[in-house]
Amino acid sequence: MPEPQLLHVWLGALAYIAPPAVACWLASLPLRDASIVDRAWSLLFVAVAVGYALALGPARPRVLLTSTLLLAWALRLSLHITLRNWGQGEDRRYRQIRRNHEPGFAWKSLYIVFGLQAVLVWVISLPLLGSMAGDRPPGWRDAPGLLLWLAGFSGEWLADQQLARFRRAAGNHDGVLDTGLWRYSRHPNYFGECCVWWGFYLLAASAGAWWTVPAPVLMTALLLRVSGVALLERDIGARRPAYREYVARTNAFLPGPRRAAR
């Protein structure tokens, strides 16, 4: 279990995540676009990590390693989502949430969207705290975590690039990408994201913070059952008929060989 001092640091990090979350909510009001929270999602982890680093002190031997990996992941993901959604208006998932909670969604979104996202970031960030707080300098014990993080980061980046290239090509608006990494998984980007956070957990565990395991479990559940695979595939078959055949031949999450057509 975490030491009382770490529990205090974790609770104190709420003071670092609340202001940017509220600022993001305020920015969404004139735009009528709650989906800008997706662009800020990864950056909220940076805000939490800043709180951790300041509370723990920069002399901690693992602060630089953990912060560097987090910053690389956060900036890439935020930039990717920003460029992908630029000029598109509010994402259809958030438009549905808006319809479900009118009237007064502008105010309700403070806790339904932005507050909830901030709390999830705070909980999922536990491995960052566990890794940063470790007294042992980075060493060979960190190799599994680093390798898993690197595989996840690279896979997520490559999957996003392949999908972006596919969508830019003429005639692919309603098509289904089934080549590259998307040949082996219907959501290789989500699988890469999952690996990144299990990589952070292994780094935390190598520093003695095995108790942070609920964080990657929660992230995996979100990717599979809540905001990731399950939500995206709820109606994609109706919007893209070819996706049904793709589902029959391709694993949803874990990469694997394609199945024969029935």
Query: Tell me, what's the shape?
Result: globular
- The percent of residues in helical segments reads 55-70%
The mean pLDDT is 90
Q: Terminal Cα separation, in Å?
A: 50 Å
- Measured by DSSP, the beta-strand proportion falls in under 5%
Number of domains: 2
Instruction: Report low-confidence residues grouped into runs of 5 or more.
Output: none
Give the SSE string.
Answer: HHHHHHHHHHHHH
Class of secondary structure makeup: mainly alpha
Oligomer: single chain
Described by strand count, sense and barrel closure, the largest sheet is: none
Number of helices: 13
Q: Rg from C-alpha positions?
A: 19 Å
Number of strands: 0
SSE topology sketch:
Layout: H1 4-12, H2 14-31, H3 37-56, H4 63-85, H5 92-100, H6 105-124, H7 126-132, H8 143-168, H9 188-206, H10 214-226, H11 229-232, H12 236-239, H13 242-249
Helix pairs in contact: 2-3, 2-6, 3-4, 3-6, 4-8, 7-9, 8-9, 9-10
Report what the structure shows:
- The protein has 262 residues and is mainly α.
- The protein has two domains: 1-136, no CATH class; 139-262, no CATH class.
- Helices cover 69% and strands 0% of the residues.
- The protein contains 13 helices and no strands.
- It has helices at 4-12, 14-31, 37-56, 63-85, 92-100, 105-124, 126-132, 143-168, 188-206, 214-226, 229-232, 236-239, 242-249.
